[in-house]
Specification:
The longest helix has 15 residues, at 70-84. The chain has a domain at 27-184 and 279-331 and 343-351: Aldolase class I (TIM Barrel). The chain has helices at 70-84, 102-112, 127-137, 151-158, 163-175, 195-205, 231-238, 306-311, 316-328, 348-351, and strands at 27-28, 34-35, 37-41, 88-92, 118-122, 141-145, 182-186, 208-212, 244-248, 258-262, 268-272, 285-288, 293-295, 304-305. By secondary structure, it is of the alpha/beta class. The strands form two sheets. It has a twelve-stranded mixed beta sheet. Helices cover 28% and strands 16% of the residues.
Length: 353
Amino acid sequence: MRLVEVGIPKVRHRGPALDGRPDTSDLVDRFGRVARDLRVSITEKCSLRCVYCMPEEGLPPIPREQLLTVEEIVRLVVLAVRELGVREVRFTGGEPLMRHDLERIVAGCHEQVPETPLSMTTNGIGLQHRARGLVAAGLQRVNVSLDTVDREGFARLTRRDRLDSALAGIRTAREVGLAPIKVNAVLMRHTLTNAADLLQWCLGEGCELRFIEEMPLGADREWARSNMVTAAELLDVLGTRFTLTEAGRREDPSAPAEGWLVDGGPAVVGIIATVTRNFCGSCDRTRLTADGMLRSCLFSDQEFDVRQVLRSGADDAEIANLWRGAMWNKWAGHGIDAEGFAPPERTMGAIGG
């Protein structure tokens, strides 16, 4: 069996430079952006093996002692909200449902910062059994990764025949009030012909569908721009069945999805053109990996070891200062179109969505 590296960068950065940083508690960077959205990966494990994310055998496990504990995650989330200006928190993976203590994580955060929206990105496998408990813990919304509603296509893409479980999870989430439910679909060449069917299904189920251009973050390192399905191609395919009218980013100018009214509205389909129409200039995200590394950008290999600092007995002020420095040194953009672009050493499954 071929082992695929989790992709941990060789160089870790400590004590990031703060030269020229304004006197503010917020997570600002050198380009005037302010991070308000925190993505917290809680595991590298997943119940699926999507071809654009993970190898068939999965990623090597992160040693248990290197994973952030419930208490550590709660402490960092609370610090981010109270001291750093974070306004929204989303739990990611891997697959968050693979952690048996997910409800404790959510409940701990909700108890400490009850006004902060807590959401989760999930593939929906097993969600039908835990949705009610997660709502009771304080979870408010879910994004579900679902690339097709064609059973054969789903099995080919995820290497697992679990479509029924994913759909059951979505429907249970809606029943218990985890709304609005957003469905995220990565554009792939062999599922493009089923894109209109997925949009039709989401319209019928009351879900907000967002298509995402495939990014060079897979563990198999097989991404090629020449093979990527673009937003323009998708619009052509959807246009054969629906009338789409451009609506822009109506709700939030920093949101990654461009909206298109479907048949005059009110339903909207979103397109996240990460590669061909990047939105780096308005990015408002900060990331925490499952093993406790701060990341300012999906595509940067700069990491800041907050786990070690936390476990060494640092107080909140020291951790907050490390976090501010990490974000102050954020890149201008992902640079996919730049000559000599190289994808990050960590893959999407190891970073967190």
